[in-house]
């Protein structure tokens, strides 16, 4: 199996450019170890021999971890992330490291410091981002499963653009230990796959409490696969009218309405819900995420980690040159935005205000989930955009995150599933949001649609 996927990578990745690093020998060695275990009659893990692509933001002590940044081009982490250790314990084969927007900042994978990943459905379109490499790897059958991370949509949006399934778990469901931090209060690791059961299987392997991440929660992990095929009787689907206004492309609108009809045919009930503060979610996110990023990225000083400028006058100059020469434009933009929003005299006006709005957004969801099981919405306002189309317009790029971002602010789970195609043949995604720890409900509801 591993050989087949490696051959597929050899055949198509020169066009798609989903992977930053594939070590054929190492992957075959891992697969060989699983084979030996099997021959010796040893018990095998639940992902035995399954190749998994890993976003290049998750530390694996046996490999470089670049976060698609020149800053970390040669960085080898001294330890492995919790999720990588879990996959190894499950006997998975970690087949390669996938491309992403630098430090996961972006929605198109164009912000990678190394290469631009293409959407396998149409090579002049982006695969979405920031987990665009993982999404493209799965969509082009270069790996059956992949790990991504989602701070404001980076699993769900590329899954939607590439016609696959992707799930952002509840904040605290999956350990962030060894995940290079972008915005610590929003980041979550999650699964990407061809179908819903693939994501359930992968989440099963990585979810659960980890004492090494103080924000990981000690909630028992249900057996997702044992219930996934049970349709939810009288599923209550929340629809927020505000989601269907200006800015939503007619093709996506049609696909989402058709999905609602499919659910109604299966006995689901549609309930109107109100999320009155969701209109502030993009503004709130783009204060909080850059603020946390500016603080997290302060550690890249040219001394402790990564790139160091060759020529400098003094220590301050060393910091400035090392960061200036190795960070890309979007990362610099975020650092400046965040530093400004946190600075004395402005933090009450921006950062602290954003935290208050975040609380209101969270409260809207609590109210809504007292009435419904899931909230159904588009993943993005339109199908995949072209490479370069939004690259020079960061505000337009930020606005395209409108449907995904509020889940991260509220800490709730969300799944993106394929829901048809546009006229030009690009995939359209459907999003289901659930209450805290509602992953099991999301899998079951998503599976009802898939079947
Ligand atoms: N597109 C969003 C951003 O640029 C989300 C990124 C993410 O989820 N990592 O911040």
TrEMBL record:
The superkingdom listed in its UniProt entry is Bacteria
Give the InterPro entries listed for this entry.
Amidase, Amidase_CS, Amidase_dom, AS_sf, GatA
Please state every residue range assigned to the domain named Amidase: 1-442
Q: Which GO terms describe its cellular component?
A: glutamyl-tRNA(Gln) amidotransferase complex
Per its UniProt entry, what is the enzyme's top EC class, as one word?
Answer: ligase
- Establish whether keyword ATP-binding is in the entry: yes
Catalysed reaction per UniProt? Answer: L-glutamyl-tRNA(Gln) + L-glutamine + ATP + H2O = L-glutaminyl-tRNA(Gln) + L-glutamate + ADP + phosphate + H(+)
Q: Where is this region: Disordered?
A: 106-130
Gene Ontology molecular function: any one: glutaminyl-tRNA synthase (glutamine-hydrolyzing) activity
Q: Which Pfam families match?
A: Amidase
Q: Which UniProt keywords apply?
A: ATP-binding, Ligase, Nucleotide-binding, Protein biosynthesis, Transferase
- Which terms under GO biological process does the entry name? translation
Q: How does it assemble?
A: Heterotrimer of A, B and C subunits.
Q: What does this protein do?
A: Allows the formation of correctly charged Gln-tRNA(Gln) through the transamidation of misacylated Glu-tRNA(Gln) in organisms which lack glutaminyl-tRNA synthetase. The reaction takes place in the presence of glutamine and ATP through an activated gamma-phospho-Glu-tRNA(Gln).
Q: What is this protein called?
A: Glutamyl-tRNA(Gln) amidotransferase subunit A
Q: Supply the source organism for this entry.
A: Stratiformator vulcanicus
């Amino acid at each position: 199996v591993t050989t087949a996927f490696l051959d597929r990578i050899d055949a198509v990745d020169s066009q798609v450019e989903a992977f930053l690093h594939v070590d054929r020998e190492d992957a075959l060695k891992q697969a060989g170890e699983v084979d030996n275990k099997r021959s010796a009659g040893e018990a095998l893990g639940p992902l035995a021999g399954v190749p998994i692509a890993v976003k290049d933001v998750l530390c694996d002590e046996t490999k470089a971890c670049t976060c698609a940044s020149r800053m970390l081009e040669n960085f080898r982490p001294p330890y492995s992330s919790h999720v990588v250790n879990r996959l190894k314990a499950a006997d998975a084969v970690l087949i390669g490291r996938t491309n992403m927007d630098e430090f996961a900042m972006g929605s198109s994978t164009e912000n990678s410091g190394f290469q631009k990943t293409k959407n396998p459905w149409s090579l002049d379109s982006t695969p979405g981002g920031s987990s665009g490499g993982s999404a493209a790897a799965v969509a082009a059958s270069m790996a059956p499963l992949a790990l991504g991370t989602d701070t404001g949509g980076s699993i769900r949006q590329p899954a939607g653009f590439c016609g696959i399934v992707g799930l952002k778990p509840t904040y605290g469901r999956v350990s962030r230990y060894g995940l290079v931090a972008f915005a610590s209060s929003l980041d979550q690791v999650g699964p990407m796959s061809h179908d819903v059961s693939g994501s359930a299987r992968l989440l099963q392997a990585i979810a659960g409490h980890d004492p090494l991440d103080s924000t990981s929660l000690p909630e028992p992990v249900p057996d997702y696969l044992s219930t996934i095929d049970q349709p939810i009787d009288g599923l209550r689907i929340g629809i927020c009218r505000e989601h269907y206004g200006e800015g939503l492309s007619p093709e996506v609108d049609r696909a989402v309405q058709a999905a609602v009809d499919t659910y109604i045919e299966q006995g689901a009930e549609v309930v109107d819900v109100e999320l009155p503060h969701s209109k502030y979610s993009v503004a709130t996110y783009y204060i909080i995420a850059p603020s946390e990023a500016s603080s997290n990225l302060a550690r890249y000083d040219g001394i402790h980690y990564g790139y160091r400028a060759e020529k400098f006058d003094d220590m301050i100059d060393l910091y400035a040159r090392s960061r200036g020469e190795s960070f890309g434009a979007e990362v610099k933009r975020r650092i400046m935005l965040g530093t400004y929003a946190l600075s004395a005299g402005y933090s009450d006006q921006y950062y602290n205000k954003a935290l208050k709005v975040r609380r209101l957004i969270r409260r809207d969801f609590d109210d809504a989930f007292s009435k419904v099981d899931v909230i159904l919405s588009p993943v993005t306002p339109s199908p995949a955009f072209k490479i370069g189309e939004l690259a020079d317009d960061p505000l337009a790029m930020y606005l395209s995150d409108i449907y995904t971002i509020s889940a991260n602010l509220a800490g709730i789970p969300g799944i993106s599933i394929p829901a048809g195609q546009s006229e030009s043949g690009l995939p359209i995604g459907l999003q289901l949001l659930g209450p805290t720890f509602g992953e099991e409900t999301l899998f079951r509801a998503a599976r009802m649609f898939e079947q």
